Amino acid sequence: MIFNIKPRQFYNYIMLPSETAGEFLRLSDEKQLKVLIYLYSSNFKSFSDTEAAKALGLSENDIREAVSVLNSKGLIDCSDETLSTLSKVLLSQSRVVEQKVHAENPSARMLSSKTVVKLSPKDIASLAETDAELNHLFDEAQIILKRPINYTEQGSLINLYQYYRFPVNSIELILSYCEEMGKTSFGYIEAVATGLHRSGIVSFHDVDVEIERLRKNKTRENQVARALGLTAKVTPKQSEYIEKWAGLGFSNDMITLASEKCIDSTNKLSFQYMDKILVSWAENGIYTPEAAENAPKPEKKKGSKNKSSDKERSYDLNDFDDFILHSKPTID
Predict the structure, then answer these.
(1) What are 303-330's pLDDT values in tens digits?
(2) Which is nearest to 141 in space by CA: 126, 130, 131, 156?
(3) CB atoms within 10 A of CB 168
(4) Buried b / exposed e across 18-48, counting CB within 10 Å, b at 16+?
(5) What residue segments make up the domains of the chain, in order of their start?
(6) What is the pLDDT of residues 121-176, one digit of tens each?
(7) What are phi and psi of 230, to 5 degrees?
(8) Which residue, among 69, 63, 16, has the nearest Cα to 44 in the 3D structure?
(9) At what angle are helices 168-180 and 132-145 packed, to 10 degrees?
(10) Nearest to 44 by CA among 22, 15, 7
(11) If both were cysteines, with which of 42, 112, 119, 285 could 123 make a disulfide (CB 3.0 to 4.6 Å apart)?
(12) Nearest alpha-carbon partner for 277 in 261, 266, 293
């Protein structure tokens, strides 16, 4: 399909920097583009966030964040006074949101005792200008997540990079893993990163090894879930069992066989019962369906508490039979 424009139909034009047609256009969001076009269409006249918000149908906070990003990319130039005002307002709103989240869900706090520092848009822009690796991380994050990242999310990346001491390539691995899982919110990304940090997993090699382990576990979980006919999401406890069975050296076929024997014995699927079967097989070196089928069945206990042996009877059965045969009933 071919698209053409008809310039003769229009009399007024807006000139935009050529940089906007490159990487910025691919990674920018609707709000940033709206603000950029609005700014250039106003013939560089100053405008307030309130005026722009009303004209563009955005919130005032959307305007402030977009201006901050445009300034950091060098597409517009804000005065120090404007940046200072932006910093104060955005930081204030960030704290309000954070307090609201913690009030509604106290467990949503960061999972590490490391200090998390709030940075202003001006600070972030300054850091990106002086640190090529950090600037590269911002660009790569947008490519990996397939969306623009805002000022708050840039601040999260800086915290992972500067205060948790993750190398840039480690952060990129974490971002890629989260994107594969379909969870690209920075709340989830930070939870994964801080979990790794708590375990001392920070270097590129260690993060790479751990994420590969997590990938394999997820793949195995999905395979086992399909084999067992599970329709609900695998629970954390079930995930622990599946990882344990894999660690014991069992294939998915053996896990499926254990589930069949579980259902035969209990008429239901029980991971706890399956675990007993598989642990027993591991202890006896049974790792193939053939070996499991040929394994000796456990002997049933003889007798029961309700049955008594002949020696425990307080009467002789022969005498009892003789009494029944020769006695005559009498009627009073």
Answers:
(1) 545 544 444 455 555 554 555 455 555 5
(2) 156
(3) 19
(4) eebeeebeebbbebbbbbbebbbeeeeeeee
(5) 10-104, 131-200, 223-292
(6) 778 888 888 899 999 999 999 999 999 898 889 989 999 998 899 999 999 999 99
(7) -75, 130
(8) 16
(9) 10
(10) 15
(11) 119
(12) 261
In sequence order, the 6+-apart residues with CB closer than 8 A to the CB of 32 are 66, 69, 70, 148
> What tokens appear for 263 in the block?
């259902």
| Structure-derived torsion over alpha carbons of residues 305, 308, 311, 314, reported in degrees to the nearest 10 | 120
Q: How far apart are CA 26 and CA 256, in angstroms?
A: 47
How far is it, in rounded angstroms, from Cα 255 to Cα 253? 5
pLDDT (tens digit, 9 = 90+) per residue, 233-262?
889 899 999 999 999 999 999 999 999 999
3-state secondary structure of 231: coil
DSSP string, 264-307: HHHSS--HHHHHHHHHHHHHTT--SHHHHHHSPPPPPPPS-TT-
Structure token pair of residue 217: 């576990």
Kindly tell me if the per-residue pLDDT of 39 is higher than 70: yes
